[in-house]
Design a protein that fits this description.
The chain is 37% helix and 15% strand. It has helices spanning 38-47, 62-72, 92-106, 136-148, 162-171, 190-198, 223-232, 236-245, 258-266, 275-282; strands spanning 13-15, 22-24, 28-29, 52-54, 80-85, 111-116, 152-158, 178-182, 202-206, 250-251. The structure holds adenosine-2'-5'-diphosphate (A2P).
Length: 285
Amino acid sequence: TLAAPVSGDLPQYVTLSRTGDRMPLVGLGTWESAPGEVGGAVAAALDAGCTHIDCAAAYRNEKEIGGALKASGIPRKSLFLTSKLWNDRRRPQDVRDALDTTLSRLGTDYLDLYLVHWPVVWAKNSVMKPDGGASLRECWQTLEALVDEGKVRNIGVSNMKQSELEELFSYARIRPSVNQIELHPRLPQSALVEYCQQRQVALTAYSPLGRGDVKKAGLLASPTVTAIAQAHKVSTASVLLRWNLERNVVVIPKSVNPTRIASNVREPWSFALTAEERTALAALE
Ligand code: A2P
């Protein structure tokens, strides 16, 4: 569980449809966390009480993450591990092989959540080359079989818009329990969030601190966010994270800095946004 949350007004988890598994509302993002750095980031997150780690085969750092998880000694059942299937692994055997590779790199025999990274179908080992012989539908059926076999507890998607979800719903025997998309006050995607939440598809926000050069010109330095942060004596990152938490959206801020990781994991629970502050943040869209 998360260490010593200060604010008791928000749940610590979202409960996933079908399994009832609890997905911690704050996880560690690992995209672009460099080799040699990501292991330390995972250790810092675990130390801070964050047991949810968001990974992907495409980030090419799962082996080091697995090493840090093992070194922590934390029992597997206390962790929430997500990974993602890359776009050129869509045929049944390739889906199976990709999952086995991810499991072995992470040093586990199951994932809590496995996501289709993007709703596209590329030929194996290609970038953006179409594969006429493969389909998302067949890929999803393979993921459903992997749920049946106990290798993944929950399956979901990433980067899906409403029309793509509608198509998936038309054939899914096991419906997606999560859609991971870019969400922050500049890109609130409120209609898509509502569509998903009404259908028991939980949302995970990637890039919750904004995109681009976040430290200099982005949301983290926005005057609106800075004023709110000063009012609560918290970081601007915590304001942005809290904004998603208050919509019941899971956040996975990436950091490799132990101080920022601990702050991202704990500080968003220590205050609440006022109605006026939410209105000011809404104006950033
Ligand atoms: P660092 O890893 O040095 O902490 P993205 O969301 O696109 O993955 O990028 C997150 C960016 O935000 C990284 O550059 C990360 O840098 C930075 N970051 C993470 N947490 C904080 C924070 N609390 N304050 C300022 N910058 C942060």
